[in-house]
Structures are given as structure tokens and as C-alpha cells.
Amino acid sequence: MKKVLCALVVVLSFVSVSFAAPELTLIIASNATDLTNPYSYGLDKFKEVAEQVSGGKIQVTVHKGTLGENESELVEKLTMGAADLVVSSPGFMTAIGVPEIDIFSLEYLFDSFAHWEKCVDGDFGEAMRKIVLDKTYNQFRIMGYWSSSVRDVYAKRAVKSPADLKGMSIRTQSSQVQQAFFQGCGAIPTTVAWGELYQALQQGVVDGAENDYTNLTLKEHHKTSNGKYVSETHHDFTTRLFLMNGDKYDRLTDEQKSWINQAAAASTAEERAITYRMFGESKQKAINDGAVITEFSEIDIPAFKAIAKPIQDDFAKRNNMTAQLEMVRAAE
Fold first, then answer.
1. Gap between the Cα atoms of 235 and 173, Å rounded
2. Helix axis angle, 322-330 relative to 301-318, nearest 10°?
3. Cα four-point dihedral sign 27, 33, 35, 37
4. Which residue, among 74, 55, 53, has the nearest Cα to 263 in the 3D structure?
5. Which residue(s) pair with 28 in the sheet?
6. Residues 178-231: pLDDT tens digits?
7. Which of 29, 34, 30, 31 is nearest to 216 (CA)?
8. What torsion, rounded to 10 degrees, do the Cα atoms 284, 290, 296, 299 define?
9. To the nearest 10°, the Cα dihedral for 223, 212, 62, 43?
10. Confidence of residue 146 (pLDDT cuts 50, 70, 90)
11. Around Cβ 25, how many Cβ atoms within 10 Å?
12. From CA 27, how far away is CA 16, in angstroms rounded?
């Protein structure tokens, strides 16, 4: 009888531990619904590491596009407490009083993935973290710098120099500095919703667009009449922010912060690794599907940089960001 009771106590203790509520639950999200998107791998890695290093004391729920496919929705949920960590482009912060963040939108700011990593993982990245925390009154804390690869021009004809863009309507992002760059090239920056871009390219509403190989091939833009020619301008090594509410982070215990920091670092490394791997895979897919590629070595990069540099200098001067711009240039 004693043995039976002891065994019962052990079983009940195990059940009690197994079903004990975690001390911290987190909801993390991106706007990407495609499970092969690098964001998805990054979110999964965060969940894996956070739950592992905490011994199950942290429980993570992952949402891949299911909390909203627009980044603005995710950011709103982060501020309201309906999400704890989200992936977003930096641009939304310009509308909420952080114009300095648009430094990430400057064309030809970074020369390579290695240059980008050296900057965001060094003094420049730390300076931007502090600016974001201070200007948003601790509302947004950057937990990691994620990549959305490098953006190129794809259009109805090959683009080797700025002159080739003259008169072409190019779907661009909404950033003023990015639109200024394409205007400087003689193009006509045009706004088209991402979900409508395939049709706009196919029907000739726009002459071209710009994005990275992975995103343009996932949407099959390279199969349209005005997206067939992909020119490796490499004008934007993109930055995406893995964000957490700063006030919530500060309320955590030191142990909980350590767990989250470890998970954020691991997820950032995973997301970048997948992004870099998919660059080559997506380029090959575009070639296999009949896209015509103009290689980076064939592009007149100095001519494009000559247009980009004054825009960089002007932005830095207007936003008191000269020191940060010099950090980036010194790291080349």
C-alpha cells in the first residue's frame, strides 16, 4: 500500500508540474503568411530557444500573418499589448515622430551583407536602438536587426545606368528619400499596393518595380511582361526590426530578460542565415523561369551612388544624423 501511495504521489506531482502555467507567455508575429519566408524561420527559432532555455517557464505563441498582413496592424497590436514581439520595417516610425529611422531607407547606404551586419551589430546599431527607445518613450525596443535581403530593379527592360530609368514608372516604397533617389534617376516613383503589383506589372500600369529576389519570385513578378528584366542594382540592403514593447521588457526579471535576449539573438541569426541562403535559391528560380538577369558587375554602380550620396548627406544634415552616417561610411 505504501508503494502504491508513493507511486501515486510521484504521478500526481508529475501531472502538476506538466500542467503548471508558465510564468511568462509571449505572442510573437510577422505579416508574412508564406511559411518559407525567412521571418517564419526566425519566429520559430525564437519560440524554440525561449522555451528551451527557460525550461518551459516561457510559452510562446507564433502568428505568421494571422494577426494581420499589414505591418501597421502588428505595430498597433504591439502598442496595445495584443502582441509582445513583432517584425516590422523601420519606415512606420517616421509617421510617429522618429524621422531619424529613415536612415535605413537611404539607397546605397550599405555596400554588402557583410557591411550591413558590421554596422547594425556595432556602434551604429546601438546608436539607433537608443534613438528609437528615447524618441518613442520606451515604447519600441529593438531586439534584433533582421534582413529582407537586397533590393534590385525589375522592369520591362534592363537597367544598367540611371539613364535607363528615365521616364519609367517604377513602383517604389513610400519613403521620401527612396522616392527622391528614383526621381534623381529620372524615373517616376509610383505607389501600388503590394497585393496589386502583379496585375499592375502585367497590364503595364507600371513599367517596373524594385524588391529582392525572394519576394519578387514568391509573387511571380518576374513572370510578368514588365517584370521580366531583373537588374542587380543592389541599391538597398534592407533592414527589418524585431521589436518588443520597452515598458514590458523593463518589467521582466533579469532571468526572464536573459531568456528573451538569448532567443532574440538566436532568431536573428536564423532569419539572416535563411535570407542569405534564399538569395541564391530565388535568383536561380528567376533564371529557371525565364527572367533575364543583368548581373551586378554589369551595372554602373558609381553613377547610381553619385545620385544617392547627396540625398544621404542632406538627410543626415536635416535630421542631425551626420555622426551616424559617418559610422556607416567608416565601416565600409
1. 13
2. 150
3. negative
4. 53
5. 62, 85
6. 999 999 999 999 999 888 999 999 999 999 999 999 999 989 999 999 999 999
7. 34
8. 180
9. 140
10. very high
11. 11
12. 24
Of 219, 254, 200, 237, residue with least CA distance to 115: 237
Calpha distance 267→194 (Å, rounded): 26
Give the C-alpha separation, 317 to 106, whole Å: 13
Distance CA 74, CA 85 (A): 9
Asked whether the CA dihedral 70, 74, 63, 282 is positive or negative, the reply is: positive
Q: How far apart are CA 254 and CA 138, in angstroms?
A: 18
Q: Which value, in Å, is the radius of gyration of the alpha carbons in the chain?
A: 23
Distance CA 257, CA 251 (A): 9
Closest CA to 248 of 266, 240, 265, 260: 260
Return the C-alpha cell found at 264.
532574440
pLDDT tens digit sequence for 265-297 = 999 999 999 999 999 999 999 999 999 999 999
Structure pTM? 0.91
Determine the Cα–Cα distance for residues 261 and 285; give it in Å rounded to an integer: 36
Rounded-to-integer distance, Cα 160 and Cα 153, Å: 10
HEC assignment per residue over the chain: CHHHHHHHHHHHHHHHHHCCCCCEEEEEEECCCCCCCHHHHHHHHHHHHHHHHCCCCEEEEEEECCCCCCHHHHHHHHHHCCCCEEEECHHHHHHHCCHHHHHHHCCCCCCCHHHHHHHHCCHHHHHHHHHHHHHCCCCCEEEEEEEEEEEEEEECCCCCCHHHHCCCEEECCCCHHHHHHHHHCCCEEECCCHHHHHHHHHCCCCCEEEECHHHHHHCCHHHCCCCCEEEEEEEEEEEEEEEECHHHHHHCCHHHHHHHHHHHHHHHHHHHHHHHHHHHHHHHHHHHCCCEEECHHHCCHHHHHHHHHHHHHHHHHHCCCHHHHHHHHHCC
Kindly give, in sequence order, each residue whose CB lies less than 8 Å from that of residue 275, ignoring residues fewer than 6 positions away. Answer: 38, 146, 147, 148, 149, 214
Identity of the amino acid at 49 = V
For residue 304, which amino acid is it?
F
Question: Distance (Å, rounded) from C-alpha 16 to C-alpha 14?
Answer: 5
